[in-house]
Amino acid sequence: MTKTKALVDDYQRKLLKALKHLDYSYKKIQTLTDDANQLDEESLETWESFSARFARVADLFLTKYVRAKVLEDDPGFEGTLRDFVNQGEKLGLLDDADSWMDIRELRNISAHDYTEEDLTAYFKQIKSHAHRLLLVKQKIK
Fold first, then answer.
1. CA proximity to 7, closest of 55, 86, 93, 70
2. pLDDT in tens, 108-135
């Protein structure tokens, strides 16, 4: 087994575990409002857990798994994350490079401070993109 294949297998295992956690959190937020002004501490904690799990899956998939799969296909491939995402789309690893770059941006902004209005918009965005992340499970099996 090559080093790259071993990395792909390791990332696949980690992704499957992270996806299981994301799915659990996604199901929990379905009954919650995404209006940050209306959230009690427990609900906010549930949203924050979902946000963290969303970011983890996005990071594992884009910066680890896709990169490793592209390099497995073409060991000499070089470029930015966007280049790897575009190549991943060509290889059928992801469906739409632009949407995945949007997910990456959401992952990047998750660490910033928000007003309640910004937080509400953020919650709505990650909830709307969660389905795409959860479909990763089908792509990596």
1. 70
2. 776 566 667 788 999 999 999 999 999 9
- Residue 88's SS3 state is helix
CATH number for 113: 1.20.120.330
User: Residue 140 corresponds to which tokens in the numbers above?
Assistant: 């990596």
Whether residue 65 contacts residue 15, with contact meaning beta carbons closer than 8 Å, is answered with yes
Q: Are 70 and 77 in contact (CB under 8 A)?
A: yes
Half-sphere exposure of 123 (CA within 13 A, CB side): 27
In this prediction the pTM is 0.92
- For the chain, what's the residue count? 141
The alpha carbon of 119 is separated from its chain's Cα centroid by a whole number of angstroms, namely 18
Expressed as residue numbers, the domain containing 69 is 3-140
Could you give the CA distance from residue 36 to residue 103 in angstroms, rounded to a whole number? Answer: 21
Number of separate domains in the chain: 1
* Rounded-to-10 torsion of CA 63, 131, 109, 41: -130
